[in-house]
Specification:
- By secondary structure, the protein is of the alpha/beta class.
- Helices cover 39% and strands 18% of the residues.
- It contains nine helices and 13 strands.
- Strands 3-2-1-4-5-6-11 form a seven-stranded parallel beta sheet, sandwiched between helices.
- Strand 5, helix 4 and strand 6 form a beta-alpha-beta unit.
- Helix 2 crosses helix 3 and helix 3 runs parallel beside helix 4.
Length: 299
């Protein structure tokens, strides 16, 4: 099997390259220069997936392919409010272009999406079929990307929504908390936004399972359980043996350009049935990530 991973220099895409199953020849593309990563082959650097011609040329260059894992996204939630056209190009038009090219070539495609398609006003975990009502530009463009991709390739597309990602590469909440803890005497973290912290070490194998099974439709993929950002921060500092005091506060104390869903826990039961197992509970996943990070530091 030959698989293309878009957004391959990012937090999730890079993990997907590393986790490619035996017998899979994996290629990566990103805006990073070709060859910027060692290890799995970067098929092409600097490809603008917002241009249909560039998508076609890329797929022709690395043909034959069997499937695409589309992770490329504009994820700067606050900056999206100032750059809606760019966010739309990356999150809505690019997935459509990739899906259209995949449809023409008979390639299965997995599109990674987000909990931000929901408004967060619910109180029970969101099911894939629940009404969508994104609050800001990021969520709206990601939802449009889902819809455009589904129209372009309805018989060969899986949409997988996830949330609160962190992992061995890229910028993420654990890294931010540890950096701030090293700079400040105490921390304040919001406790009125609730979701499920999700490790790329857990999500990546789940995405490969969806691709391997060619499971069309919409799935939710997040670590089990729920937490506020305050809960997540406390768990991080405890694992890293950092005694910096952390205090809960409300969202109103940290106003941001883009609104966040107050409750965005995802119901992942469909994915659990598909795989025969759930992603690990978020505290266990965080502990596994901490262990992996510690091993890297001591090698």
């Amino acid at each position: 099997m030959r698989v293309l991973v878009t957004g391959a220099a990012g937090m999730l895409g890079s993990q997907l390259l590393l986790d490619a199953p035996a017998g899979v020849e994996v290629f990566g593309t990103d805006l990073a220069p070709a060859g910027a990563r060692e290890g799995p082959v970067f098929a092409h650097g600097g490809v603008d997936l917002g241009e249909p011609e560039e998508v076609e040329r890329l797929l022709d260059e690395i043909a034959p392919l069997d499937a695409i894992l589309h992770c490329a996204a504009y994820t700067a939630v606050d900056r999206a409010e100032e750059e809606p056209e760019l966010a739309h190009r990356v999150n809505a038009l690019a997935p459509e272009n990739v899906a259209q090219a995949a449809q023409e070539r008979g390639l299965f495609m997995v599109l990674v999406s987000t909990d931000f398609v929901f408004d967060g006003r619910g109180h029970e975990p969101y099911r894939p079929t629940d009404p969508k009502a994104p609050l800001g530009v990021y969520g709206r463009t990601k939802l449009e990307g889902e819809e455009r991709s589904n129209r372009a390739h309805p018989e060969g597309l899986a949409i997988v929504r996830t949330q609160w990602l962190y992992g061995p590469r890229g910028e993420h909440f654990p890294g931010t908390m540890l950096r701030l803890a090293s700079q400040r005497d105490e921390l304040k973290v919001v406790d009125d936004q609730v979701g499920s912290p999700t490790s790329t070490l857990e999500l990546s194998p789940a995405l490969w399972d969806v691709l391997r099974k060619r499971a069309t439709g919409i799935y939710h993929a997040a670590c089990e359980g729920r937490a506020s950002w305050y809960d997540f921060a406390k768990a991080i500092l405890e694992l890293w043996d950092d005694n910096t005091p952390v205090h809960p506060c409300g969202t109103e104390e940290f106003p941001r350009p883009a609104p966040r869903p107050a409750f965005s826990v995802l119901d992942c039961s469909d994915l659990t049935r598909l795989r025969g197992r759930a992603l690990e509970p978020w505290r266990i996943a965080l502990s596994n990530y901490h262990r992996a990070e510690s091993q890297v530091r001591h090698e």
